[in-house]
Write a structure and sequence with these properties.
This protein is an alpha/beta fold. The chain has two domains: 23-170, 3-Layer(aba) Sandwich (Rossmann fold); 190-351, 3-Layer(aba) Sandwich (Rossmann fold), CATH 3.40.50.2000. The chain contains 13 helices and eleven strands. Helix 2 (47-63) packs parallel to helix 6, helix 2 runs parallel beside helix 11 (285-293) and helix 10 (266-273) packs across helix 11 (285-293). It starts with a helix and ends with a helix.
Amino acid sequence: MKLKKKDNWIFRQRFAKMLQFITKERKAQPLPLERPESIVILARECYGDCIMLTPLIGTLKKEYPNLSISIIAFSRIIFDFFSADTNVTAVYHAKRNMKRYWTELLPQKFDLLFNPKEHPSIHFLIQTTLIRARRKIGHFSPYHEGLYDHLIELGPGTHESAKNLSLMSALGSNVLHPCKPYLPVMPVSADITQFLHTLPTGSCLGINISAGHSGGRRTPQQWSELIRSFPDETFIIFSAPQDLEEKKELEQPHQNVLPSPSTRNLYEVGEIVKQLKILITPDTSLVHIASCSDTPLIALYRERFADRTQFAPLSTLQKVIVSPTDNVMAIESATVSTALRQMLNDTAMNSA
């Protein structure tokens, strides 16, 4: 039985306190002045988190070209994501292929270990304890004290990408131009390749109908209303695999919707998003996919401060619409239409 949210939080607190009690306390030490040769990074579990980790990975590789970067993944999708990243030296799945994990990863001693989470996570704390590293770096939390050599303190609401890049400052690197978010290159199917060849850059608007959390979805009727409000624009519908039927149902009745093949990985999604005029999406990984190509964006957020600050869009041209409730369905259709109309005007002026 899954623990309730409050019980889960209490359990994580107690687990962290137990580790603090039974493990040897790591006291604050000066970070190595020499250029690090190896780092292991604990990767968070969602696509958006991983995209927001790529600026750090790219910047580390730019600052330290010979640095060996190892990633610890906790799910198959994140393992596959970083396995495609040429900046990454090795990826280990902390819950699968345990023989490789025990025989290849644990015998190593890294120069650095970095935990990007600012709250106690059982899996991350276990990895912090098991993996050997000369210096272990995390974000400040009372439950991290004694488990890390250095804790980074940042203000509330700091963007996820900035939180990750704060490691560079902790290492004493004054990076003026950090890397932008990116998507590792992955295979592109013949269907998507053909579709991209027929898609002129900047000719279509994108709508993402899927969301990975409760309260993040709008109704098909709301999306249909938006499509009908712009009969002179052409739309492309994006969806997660489980929402393909809803995607097809939106594509069929609207003459100004261009049917698109199903995407098989995040890179394929990014290649289509790159060619859009504007993307409209709830707060999902597509917000961050758009940032990789700096695609203009209208993002719909629930009334949650952390969502719209820590995971805010990074596209240069963007509009964030915050729901008055914990459900984006509560955003008025007229509000979305007005934002889209204004952004169409802005993009037309920028291209003039």
